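Our consortium's second objective concerns turning raw sequence data into structural hypotheses that experimental partners can test. To show how far this objective has progressed, the report includes one record in full. It was chosen at random from the queue rather than selected for favorable results. The single chain below, 82 residues long, was entered without modification.
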Amino acid sequence: MKKTNENLAGVIGITDLARSHNKQIGMYIEHYINEIFDYSVLLTENGSIRISRELAEDFSANPTNINEPRIIQVANSYRKIK
């Protein structure tokens, strides 16, 4: 994976929204472009989530246009890192 700052505002915004659906999601630390060219987001509390590039771009363009099912999908991608 390659560390990036691409779509930073969108990634942080989606992370904050996902936290309201899963309290285990910590705060944003950094994000990476993963093997399928989406974002893997490293969080405090030793966790990570996945956010699609499309979703991060959509949030940056118009945050009020993001629907709950898309946020829930991100919240459900949460994984604890050992």
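The partners drew two points from this record. The chain is about 35% helix and 25% strand. The mean pLDDT is 95. Both points have been shared with the crystallography group to help prioritize constructs.
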